[in-house]
Amino acid sequence: MKLFTISHSNFIKVNSRNIDFKNFLGHIWKPEAYYKNQLFKEVWTKKRPGLLRQYIAEVALTQAHQGQKTSVIEVTPAMTLSSPVQLTPTMTHSSPVQVIPEMTPASPVQVIPAMTLTSPVQVTAAMTPASLSLSPSILVPHWLEEQTPQTVSPAASEHLDRNFQSIWSIESSPLSTESSTSSESTSSGRLSLPFGVVQPGSPYPDYQIRKCSIHTPHISFLILDPRIVTFTKEPSGMFKVLGSGVSGSVYHASLLSSGYQLAVKLYHQAELVPHTIVNEGMIMALLQNTGVVPKFFGVLQEPGDIQKFTLVQEFFGDGMTLYKLIGMMNKHQITLNEKETITLCYRLVHALKVIHSRGVLVNDLKNDNVLVDVSNKEFNIRYIDFGLATFGVGMTYEKSYEPNSDIKYSFLAPEVRQGDNPTCVAADIYSLGILIGEIGWRIDELEDISERCTDQVALARPSMDELVMMMDGLVNLTN
Ligand SMILES: Nc1ncnc2c1ncn2[C@@H]1O[C@H](COP(=O)(O)OP(=O)(O)OP(=O)(O)O)[C@@H](O)[C@H]1O
Asked: Which residues bind ATP (predicted)?
């Protein structure tokens, strides 16, 4: 009798021989389970932990017979609100940015078909400044300080809400970035830097991106009139910063007319990396109507400077990141029971599947890039920060020789951390496995899933479909 154990070798076998997972389980599975050195004969009890694989096997076999699959928790449905983001079908100009004078009616973004596998075009990509502890006050650009929202009457602002100034149309051809983003040109101090945050000669990130391809499809998004957005001020008079990260600071704001809450991302180096901002906007646009990223409204432009813009998104989940949530869970300030924990992991898995199915790799999946709505037990999530995301191809990180880099970048798959290996679906799955482990380490089944996803051998990690099946099985088990 063969016993199916959760060993990596089983998954290596599955993957290396390209055997269908369900068939594999069908062959290997017998109704006993060997788990943590114990033989269990009563495998169908829901109470006993660690028997997920038996359940998966059961589900797999049932499915093999019925060809049907049921899911208890549904993924958050597609957004119903119409999005201002639009897909522009063709490239018409060679200039990277083009202003189209006429407004076109808002419509949801159309889905781009399957991922197109192309050989990676190696382009020198954006700099990512090292994590800095940034004081919000020095990040505020002058035009924000000078903001006088009362200059627009409510009626006019309502009009402006509906009638955005213009649409930017951006080409999808690989954007050469070498001239504007090489570390050489920046470290020599030849470029004037915005916001006074990163000074010439600042240390460069050890994890500078060396190569990436921008193959993101051609998507237009809107330039919003800055007068429709009011940036929120703290009682101290400071602008309210939701978070500061590697690429920028995110400010709280609202629509002047309706008070609809917004998160506006200002980039530390907007003038250096316009293509990065554009790429992030296009990826956000591409993922609209999936319900797994915040609603994206377009960009605000710094008056008088066409190169500097900011991303305007829906303010989601009261700004609660998974990082904050895990911290609170570990300090017992918030408690998630087993079912809630599994629900949260389920959402993360399904959301990543949706993102991958649109041809997008996140490449930077970590706990502070996930927002969680803890206002109810649904635990809806949104992935944020697509600054390093790619469409259709992977990107390569440069190996870090910084002490403790393995800890600092532990969310990245080991083969990615090594440099030279481009990111891929399995690398995102590794990062997802880290998240599942951080959230669900108290639950054996989640720990097992996390362990599989974080296998050092990329080929041994479960595929997204296998992962979804495991999570579905686990959810069914807990209901
Ligand atoms: N749509 C949003 N709603 C609420 N809060 C948000 C939103 N987007 C971002 N934030 C907050 O701002 C922080 C920084 O956002 P983001 O990750 O996009 O910036 P970043 O500079 O790219 O950071 P990173 O260091 O992860 O690269 C988040 O951790 C979160 O706290």
From this structure: 265
Cβ(265) – ligand 1 distance below 6 Å: yes
248 lines ligand 1 (CB under 6 A): yes
Helix (H, G, I), strand (E, B) or coil at 300: strand
243 pocket-lining for ligand 1 (C-beta < 6 Å) = yes
CATH at 274: 3.30.200.20
Beta bridge partners of 239: 233
Residue with tokens 């993102």: 355
List per-residue pLDDT tens for the chain, 479 residues long. Answer: 233 333 333 333 333 333 344 444 433 333 344 333 444 444 433 333 333 444 444 444 455 455 443 333 222 333 333 333 443 333 333 333 332 333 333 333 333 333 332 322 222 222 232 222 222 223 444 545 554 443 445 554 454 444 333 323 222 222 222 233 222 222 222 222 222 222 222 222 223 333 334 566 767 677 777 788 889 999 988 889 998 877 778 999 998 888 999 999 888 765 555 667 778 888 998 999 899 999 998 888 766 565 567 889 999 999 999 999 999 998 999 999 999 999 999 999 999 999 999 999 999 999 999 999 999 999 999 999 998 898 888 888 887 777 777 777 889 999 998 887 889 999 999 999 999 999 999 899 999 999 999 999 999 999 999 999 999 999 998 87
Amino acid at 389: A
Do 385 and 260 fall within a single domain? no
CATH code of 369's domain = 1.10.510.10
Our answer on whether the CB atom of 315 is closer than 6 Å to any ligand 1 atom is: yes
Mutate to test the pocket of ligand 1, among 195, 229, 239, 242 (most ligand atoms within 8 A of CB): 242
Q: Which domain holds residue 224?
A: 218-315
Structural domain contains residue 46:
no
Q: Is residue 248 part of a domain?
A: yes
- What phi and psi, each to the nearest 5 degrees, are found at residue 157? -70, -35
Tell me what ipTM this predicted complex has. 0.95
